[in-house]
Input
Amino acid sequence: MDALTALNLLSTTNVGLLGSSHINPAILTALFGIADAIVAKDSIPETPKLDSTVIALQNKLNTASTQLREIQDSLNPIVYQCGKDVIDKLELAMNKLYMLAVFIRGDYDNREPDTTAQDALLQQAVQAFTEVETCAKDGLEKVGQLHAQVMEIENMDINTAKQDIDLLLKNNDNELQNVQAQINSAEKSFKVLRNSLEQQSQAVSRLHDKIASSKGAKLASDIFWSIATLGIGNAINKGPLDPFNLQGQLDDANRSLKDAQKKYDEAARKLDEMHLERVSLDQRLSAAKQTAALIPTVSALADTTNSNCIMLQHQFGPLKDQSTQLLRSVGKIQSDASVTQNLAYSKKEFAAGLLQICKDSLMDQALLDEATMIKDEVVNQYGGPLPDEVQEMASETSERMSLIVTVPSIRG
Output
């Protein structure tokens, strides 16, 4: 049942050419109130689906959050595994150094040079430290790649989503203000039309009352006029006279009522549409605000993951740099020992170089055994008094060994 049905019911029960009922204005107003209530009840909207833009933004932020958590969860295991791999390869590389230390055992300077064996051992050492550097470089690159992913997620997903949400909230607020202004204006117009409809309906009701109350007087007048004119008056007027043209007034009033009712119904329909639009915008605004509430959490997660990437790069960077330096040191020994086949590389230079690499290789206490073997081999099997340079380097290596033992091993 709508307002039009209620008004039609009002017309059929109170409007008729011969009707005699008088409508109480309070009852009429109550009937219009019932009609308005029916319209309001019928116009309660179903909950609309979320705006596709809001859904897309929510999905983007949820995906970003998932990706960041995956990166965050993978950072420590990657760094741990890469660090462990570096230590494992460095352990193998130090075994190659130990073989070189054994190679120069005893009176190395005065015996016949074995360049073939020496070159092979040096090449094996260079290859082993090359693998150490490659492993460290790969680990650092993995962390760098994850860091780049975090930056991309932050710039391309989170920041753009924030901009889109801010724009969506702004546009939605503007639309709400515009619709509310239209509703306010429409409600004023609707009130005017409702008053007009009530007035027109009351006018029709009053005309019916006049027609009903004047029925007897009109009938007596028509009979008198017919007798006085010997029936000619009725013949001329084609029926009983209507000196006040009440029927014409009633026809005009009915037309005005119909027109007022049509305008009223159209205004009610448009007002309902505006209210529905307002409800839809309110729900869109609520969904947009809920989406905007995701931003701080996702941004904080991005900041944390970004900081962890930077911290791990700073921690892993020196490992990679040290691996590169070790490779250079081994390469220098190889180069110096191979400059010419005629000039032998002295045992003092060999021993000092091996101890330098041994000291610099002590990045983890897991390498203490290998470092001890190399130092003891060089010092105990030197075959004579230790040169000052070798003695100094051996002392530095021992000092380094005493310090590294206090640092927890990456192997756990």
User: Anything to note?
Assistant: Residues 337 and 345 are 5 Å apart (CA to CA). The chain has eleven helices and no strands. Confidence is low (pLDDT under 50) at residues 1-48.
